[in-house]
# Entry
Amino acid sequence: MAHKNGWHFFMNPGPTNIPDRILRAMDRATMDFTGAEFRAIADECFAGLQRVFKTTAPILGYASTGHGAWEAALVNLFSPGDKVLIVESGYFSVNWGLRAEAFGLLVETLPNDWRRCADPAKLEARLREDKGHHIKAVLAVHNETSTGVAHPIAAMRKAIDAAGHPALFCVDTISSLGSFDFRMDEWGVDVTVVGSQKGLMLPTGMAFTGVSAKAMAATAVAKLPRVYWDWRRLLGQSPQQGYWNGTVPVHFFYGLREALKLLEEEGLDNVFARHHRLAEATRRAVRTWRQNDGPEIFATDPSGQSDTVTAILMPDGHDADAMRQICLDKFNVSLGGGLGSLKGRLFRIGHLGDVNEAMVLGALGAIEISLELAGVPHGRGGVQAAMEYLTSEA
Ligand code: PLP
# Structure
């Protein structure tokens, strides 16, 4: 393949760009994962993760992607035949539900238009109906990466409480944690699932779960078999093996320690503000492209427009993947595609993790040219609108 000049602009909504400081931190010799030196690094990492999750609950880790952490939540909490209610949000909520079904759980979906925020009132009404408390847990995705819609987790907690329902509340924060506000304890989340490769800016391959005392108690009665994922084993009986099953991927921890330092040096609130600024600049561009019946932001509720990913719906008859291919081939800019039933209908710009204004403007410029080259109708001046916003917010 011919050499492509300049930087590859990786603007997918995960995995994300890995900062040089993290790569350098991982470029280090292996150490004994049972020794005191490593134990200090691991302790520092788990304490740092608690600050990012905003919890005092234990955080457990696995060598896996987010799919593994999804599965861990299911096998630790439930028995075959248990009922769970999944709040529909898009491709990822559907897939968490499919995994629950595969383990013999009864999965009920709380229906929701993928373009809109889930409605806490509907959740409350459904839980009120469940007078026998057959629903063991509510499963929700905080930021639905496939649609670019952020869902109201704090309000969902209030809905569960208002219904007086004892269901566990399990939340996938895979594309929100460390990028915009999430508060595990304050929002009463029992199980928080995350992967390493998005807001934490690490390579793909580690996943973490925050587990409340209520969720930990549920593991004692849960009958689904589990060994590697077993939270009780992971909590650790032996001082040498606590936190992990098997060989610990020490290099990931070197990287994680640096990632947590980066987040804390910038300050979580500043990290969130940066994500919001870059997301809003992106939205300004797309709203301009929307003129002349051009592409539009998939998320229709302004309050749910995600600060980590913008999904952009193409006008009818125009193929998002053809436009993405032009963008990649001609400009070396990689974008996310539509997932599942949305394939070809939308493209996604990831503006999370280690990104800045110049990267977003560069990507928006390449997209604007690619829309033109692909013959997609659109309003001109999207990049200008993004620049004006960034100037006013500088
Ligand atoms: N949940 C959400 C919201 C995601 O965005 C993803 C991946 O992008 C997953 C779950 C699955 O995670 P993984 O690909 O790490 O298995």
